[in-house]
Amino acid sequence: MNGATIERVYVWQLPVRLYHWVNAACVATLAVTGYMIGRPMTVPVIGEASFSYFFGWVRFIHFVAAFVFFFNFLGRIYWGFAGNRYAHWDQFLPLTPRLLRKQWREAVEVMKVDILQAKVEPMESVGHNALAGWTYFLSFLAFLFQSVTGFGMYAAMSDAWLPHMFAWIVPLMGGDFAVRQWHHMMMWFFIVFSMIHVYLVFYHDYVEGRGVISSMAGGWKFVERRK
After folding, report:
1. Where are the domains of the chain?
2. What is 4-22+81-226's CATH number?
3. CA-wise closest residue to 121 among 132, 133, 109
4. Contacts of 103 (CB under 8 A, 6+ apart)
């Protein structure tokens, strides 16, 4: 473009990239195994079913992925304070009225491009745009909900100290069945979120040409600097 130069900007630090890919693997694993736990499938086996231990492995993989998911999430919370400005919490939460007004205007502009298709020119954003930041914050709340309800149900069958920290959630929400239903329904939030997320990543990579996809592997984006 005339009157502009292309500059490489280091946006996503290594802890953010590790969190992203570990989280993606955990969410996929938890969704698949969680669905199988909610709707068990019939597996034909030769001999006694107890010898195959198929469903036991499904539950074991689900529990291991849940622990990795939880501690990975704790690491991201820490990096929201220790990371660079693109990873900081003010990218997700407007901490001042002035920042709230700025993010609201930006969110409206993003909706004109991404949803209404009323604008062709992409948004000038290096890190998360305001709408993405708010959406990711909602996903963080969903992460917390799944962790609390999941460990709350697991507390009844575990002697570990971590699940028992959340045992109070089961009586609070009306019993094990109610918690299980809410936990299962929230799984669909992650499935829908993942589909929209992947679509928008490819869309923005095509429209903006900033290296959105490759930035989550190497950390760098390409930004136009006006002369």
Report:
1. 4-22+81-226
2. 1.20.950
3. 109
4. 94, 130, 133, 134
Between 109 and 52, the higher pLDDT residue: 109
Is the distance from CB of 127 to CB of 91 less than 8 angstroms? yes
> Do residues 19 and 79 touch, judged by C-beta distance below 8 A?
yes
Cβ(34)–Cβ(59) under 8 Å? no
* Phi-psi group of 53: left, alpha or beta (phi > 0 → left; psi -120 to 50 → alpha; rest → beta): left
The pLDDT assigned to 109 comes to 80
Structure token pair of residue 204? 């923005």
Do 220 and 211 meet the contact criterion of CB atoms below 8 Å apart? yes
Higher pLDDT: 8 or 50? It is: 8
Report the distance separating Cα 119 and Cα 91, nearest Å: 24
Give dist(CA 129, CA 131) in Å, integer: 6
Cα separation, 179 vs 167, in Å, equals 11
Token pair for 159: 């002697």
CB 141 within 8 A of CB 159: no
The residue ranking higher by pLDDT, 110 or 175, is: 175
Residue 171's Cβ-count burial label (10 Å; 0-12, 13-18, 19+) is exposed
Whether the per-residue pLDDT at 203 is higher than 70: the answer is yes
